[in-house]
Amino acid sequence: MHLRSSGGPSGANLLFAIVKPSGIHHVAICVNDEDKALAFYRDVLGLSVLPRPDFGFGGYWLDAGGQQVHLMQSEHPATGSHHFAIRVDNLDAAVEYLRERGIEVHPVPHMEGAGYQAFLHDPSGNFIELNQPE
């Protein structure tokens, strides 16, 4: 069943009353080595492993503070500017911790309204933002 807004305010209000986002449940990313990716996300970034059904392909489900990151085994993971952000309480401490473990992390100049940000890549080349809200 597909619902569409009629374009008018009442149609839009009906659509948003039916499909009201309450948050992000998960982000799925493709990785070329599921075990290497698991070690990075679990042992370096501190996410914890969740139970995952057997879908017939490799992967892991991870908890990231109430939201989930799903790692999906793929021979051709997407790279580029697609990314997801992990909220951190102290960006400077997070950057220092990662650098001490040999992870290349790139803080960027603060932009009002965007929080404090740093960027890195996982072992499969996926782009990750660390974000400390303002």
Please tell me about this protein's structure.
The protein is an alpha/beta fold. It has a single domain (23-132), classed as Roll (2,3-Dihydroxybiphenyl 1,2-Dioxygenase, domain 1), CATH 3.10.180. Helices cover 23% and strands 29% of the residues. It contains 3 helices and 8 strands, in the order H-E-H-E-E-E-E-H-E-E-E. The chain has a 4-stranded mixed sheet with strand order 1-4-3-2, covered by helices on one side. The N and C termini lie far apart (41 Å). 16% of the residues are buried. The model is unreliable at 1-6 (pLDDT under 50).
Write the layout of secondary structure elements.
Blueprint: H1 9-18, E1 26-31, H2 34-44, E2 48-50, E3 59-63, E4 68-73, E5 83-87, H3 91-100, E6 106-107, E7 116-121, E8 127-132
Parallel strand pairs: 1-4, 5-8
Antiparallel strand pairs: 2-3, 3-4, 6-7, 7-8
CATH architecture: Roll
Task: Trace the largest sheet across and list its strands.
Answer: 1-4-3-2
User: What string, H for helix and E for strand, traces the elements in order?
Assistant: HEHEEEEHEEE
CATH superfamily assignment?
Answer: 2,3-Dihydroxybiphenyl 1,2-Dioxygenase, domain 1
The count of β-strands is 8
Which spans of ≥5 residues are poorly predicted at pLDDT below 50?
A: 1-6
SSE class: alpha/beta
Q: List the quaternary state of the chains.
A: single chain
CATH class: Alpha Beta
- Given the structure, what is the number of helices? 3
* Tertiary shape: globular
**What is the arithmetic mean of pLDDT?**
86
Q: What is the domain tally?
A: 1
